[in-house]
Structure formats: structure tokens, C-alpha cells
Amino acid sequence: MKQQAPVKKNEQYRVLVEDLTHDGAGVAKIDGFPVFIKGALLREEADIKIVQTKKNFAFGRLLTLHETSENRTDPPCPVFQRCGGCQLQHLTYSGQLAYKQNVVKEALARIGGLTDVPVHETLGMTDPWRYRNKSQIPIGEQKGKIVSGFYAERSKDIVDTDECLIQHSDADRAMNLVKAAASELGIRAYDPQKHKGQLRHVVIRHAKTTDELMIVLITKDKGLPNKKQLAEKLCETFPNLKSIMHNVNPKRTNVIFGEETNIVWGESVIYDEINGVRFAISARSFYQVNPEQTDVLYGKALEYAALTGTETVMDAYCGIGTISLFLAGRARRVYGVEIVPDAVDDAKRNAEINHIENADFFVGEAESIMPWWQAQGIRADVIVVDPPRKGCDESLLTTMAKLAPERIVYVSCNPATLARDLSILAEKGYETKEVQPVDMFPHTTHVECVALLTFS
Ligand code: SAH
């Protein structure tokens, strides 16, 4: 017999919210059947309307709140309800930190079967606003007007915004200036449906310790009308501007950057510092987006690495060498590997700028380069991994175990793949001692963690 969902579209119910998903939606059960309600918080009682049903769950819209959570707060951003950038502005900051700790605990238990691992309280920011040092802002046209802002949730519709409270204020000013100047100078926005028009994205990077600013214009074609006039306007407005870059992306794609990047004005990099180590950042480099919390995250990684100055450290997924160079001062030698050749060039240059001579960087897949290091007779006392969201390749986990380091420090931006990888490493003899969530992305559902593993 075909199972029927116990709820139907347009029906209304009064429900109690029993849980929050990792997307930040409230979960209520109607006859045991889960209904996801955006904007509802834990232990709230609400009237909802069913808006969509699926085989195993449904979506409901919040109508009226009867019992309100003590953790509910007014979202300060006027477009919070529509913009897909933030998901948690209606939850107090302390509520967000507790929620993120819980997301990590649940992922470890449910996916990794790791119920005994201590998960500490999330380390948060004193002032969790205006933290982002990089903004990637899509440009579009609506009713003949140039618009810019972030996409609505699960959509490619731009929510036109003048201000984003989680990005640096220079990013707001630059975004508004480009928007106004584009209209004035006859620059058309790119239309992804028709694959016509010019300006696709504006990327703005700000270096917290030096206040240097980089603005990257990403267009469909090489030519950009009145590029010089636009650059002049930007230079007049921002005395801290160090770099205007032009990237060309001719493809029909969601990927922001194309392959070609040229200097319009100034330098090709800006400089920032983390704990006294200086980094050159280019238009496309991966660089942590929350500078204040990067110190906290890397500080935790350093503490877990417990270096005394005699250790050899391997840093897989090293990017532009940030963690490697952060650790190099306390280690005998650091080996970094990274798949993007430009990032490895940056890492080498960053070592040079800082006169760090005990760090070597290699291009390639961590899962191929690390066995090769081992074949060269290189041993590791500590291995640090900081993979992208999909986590580590299983062959890398096997290689890590073969290298038999005393400690593994796992930095992760995805609790689900962290949980999976920690459980695989447990089978290979590496016990997870503790996990520290760090709030790198306040008001969003993203959670960053550092885990310490030792051989048992
Ligand atoms: N540790 C750095 C970068 C972390 S982001 C920092 O904190 O700044 C993850 C990095 O892994 C990215 O730079 C990405 O290009 C790289 N990467 C992705 N897959 C990889 C692989 N298979 N081998 C090595 N590096 C990889």
C-alpha cells in the first residue's frame, strides 16, 4: 500500500518546534511526520501552513507565533527574510553559538557514531558584525535598473541591497559606487539567461591589519566600456585602494571567476597579516574570510599541534600557506601541499616575504603527494588537514595513518564530512580527543571546527 503523507498542502496546524536542522529551519512533527519551518526556533509554538509535501517530510510556512523562544531576536538586516546570505539573524548570538555546538555533536554521533568525543562550546566573536573581508557580489538588472546584492535562498534572483551587515563597510561603499557608476557610464549587467551584457560580479577584498582594499571587476568579455572612468571614480573614493583587477569569465557558468585576470590599476595583490606573518593575497586566492576568528582558529590548531620546535609538520590542503607559515616558527620543518598552482606560488612568495626558510610547498593532490613524501623518507610528527567541504579522500586518510604521526589536527568547514573522516581514522587507530567549534561565519549556519586526534 502506498504511504500517504499525513498532511496536505494548504492545511494549517498548530505545532511545537522540537529541533533545528543544520540549515537552521525548525522541525515539528505532525503524527510523527517531520515538517520543516523556516524562521521557527526551538520550543516555539506556532500556527503553520503546509506549503509543500514530499514522501518523507513537508515544508510549512510560519503564520503566527504563540510561544516565542527566549533566544528570538529582531533581525537587524532589512532584507534578512528574502536574502539567502544569512539564515540565523532571528536567533540571538549566544543561541547561534549553542546551536552550532549542537550541530557538531549531532553530526559526530549520527554520521560518525562518535558519542563520547567532547565537543567544546563554540568560540564566538565579541562583535559578530561586519566581519567578512571578502564579498563576492553578483550584479544584475531588474526593470532596467542595475542591482547588486546576494541571491535569494535557493535561487539566482538578486535581492537588491545597499548594505550588508556582515561585510566590511568599504565593501558596501564600493558595491554602491559600482552600481551607480555602471548606470552612469553605460555599463550593462550580465544576464545569465541570455548570456548577454557585461558586468557579472564585483569582488571586494579588504585586509584588516593593513586596511588595504582590492576591487575585482568580473565581466563576460575582455572589453569593458569606460573602464578607466570607473577606475578613476573608485580611486577618488577610496584612499586605501591598492588594486583594481579585471577578470574575464566568458562561460555560461555559476563559477564566479574566469581564467584571465589583468591589472586595471595598482598592484595585483594586497597584504594582510595573521599573528605577525604577512600574506600576499591575489584576486583568486583562498584566504579565510573572518580575520578576527582566523587568529582563534589557527591559534587552536597551533595549541593542538603542541609543537616544541623539533617536529616535522605536514599541512595538506595548504592554500597560500597560511597554516604552514603560522606553524613554521614553532616547528623544525613544514611541508605544505595544495592542488592550485597559483596558490602554491603565493605560499612560496609568502614564505620569502617573511624570511621563513623551513617551509616547503608542493603542487598536487594531497592524496598523491603525501605518499610520495613518505617514499622520499620524510616522516611526520604532526599532520594538519584543512580540506574543502567534501572532506578528505579516503586514500589520504590511509596515507596519514601509514605516516603514523603522533598527532593529527583536522580543521573542517563541514561537520558531516568531519564526522565521516574521524570515524574512518578511528578504525585506523586515531582517537579523536576533542573538537572545538569556532564561529567563522556568524548569522549563517556554517560551522568551522578543529579536532585533535592522537594515536591510541
Ligand atoms: N589551509 C588553508 C586553505 C584551506 S581551503 C587556509 O586556511 O587558508 C582548502 C584548500 O584545499 C583549497 O586551497 C583547495 O584548493 C585545496 N584542495 C582541494 N582539494 C585538494 C587536494 N585533493 N589536494 C590538495 N589540495 C586540495
UniProtKB/TrEMBL annotation:
A GO molecular function held by the record: rRNA (uridine-C5-)-methyltransferase activity
CDD domains the record matches: AdoMet_MTases
Gene3D superfamilies: 2.40.50.1070, Nucleic acid-binding proteins, Vaccinia Virus protein VP39
Catalytic residue list: C413 (nucleophile), C413
InterPro entries (alphabetical): MeTrfase_TrmA_AS, MeTrfase_TrmA_CS, NA-bd_OB-fold, SAM-dependent_MTases_sf, TRAM_dom, U5_MeTrfase_fam
Keywords: 4Fe-4S, Iron, Iron-sulfur, Metal-binding, Methyltransferase, S-adenosyl-L-methionine, Transferase
Family according to the record: Belongs to the class I-like SAM-binding methyltransferase superfamily. RNA M5U methyltransferase family.
Protein name (database record): 23S rRNA (Uracil(1939)-C(5))-methyltransferase RlmD
